[in-house]
Write a structure and sequence with these properties.
Layout (H helix, E strand, L loop, with lengths): L3 E7 L2 E9 L4 E3 L2 E2 H4 L3 H14 L5 E8 L3 H19 L4 H7 L29
Parallel strand pairs: 3-5
Antiparallel strand pairs: 1-2, 2-5, 3-4
Helix pairs in contact: 2-3
């Protein structure tokens, strides 16, 4: 099997994933998954599509992660892995879609407006 690539985004994070047959090693920016994401919750988030299809030990995954925070990066990686798995086997798509792994979460940070402290917050109004 040749190398399959896919892209996942979430907030400001971008994950480029390269999947090939192997024994379940996930390398992110040259580091191991457990080193890059020390939190077991984020490790679980990243592995969700693999565990759903029970192929966690079947593929080696090389990842380039950029931008955003750790939560956004983990969720971008989850989307990229799900997209790569569907490229490998299109019959897996309904199972992954039912879990919500194929949906790009389009919510972005709203910009700060001039004359306000934040995007929606306003300075206190004083009549006098």
């Amino acid at each position: 099997m040749e190398m399959i690539n896919a892209l996942g985004r979430r907030k400001a994070a971008v994950a480029r994933v390269y999947v090939q047959e192997g024994n379940g090693k996930i390398t992110i920016n040259g580091r191991d998954l457990e080193v890059y994401f020390p939190s077991p919750i984020l490790q679980y988030v990243v592995k969700q599509p693999l565990n759903k299809l029970e192929v966690a030990e079947k593929y080696d995954i090389k990842v380039n992660l950029d931008g955003g925070g750790y939560k956004g990066q983990a969720e971008a990686l989850r989307l990229a892995i799900a997209r790569a798995l569907v490229k490998i086997n299109p019959e897996d798509k309904p199972a992954l879609k039912a879990e919500g792994f194929m949906t790009r979460d389009a919510r972005e940070v709203e910009r700060k407006k001039p004359g306000q402290p934040k995007a929606r917050k306003h300075f206190q109004f004083s009549k006098r």
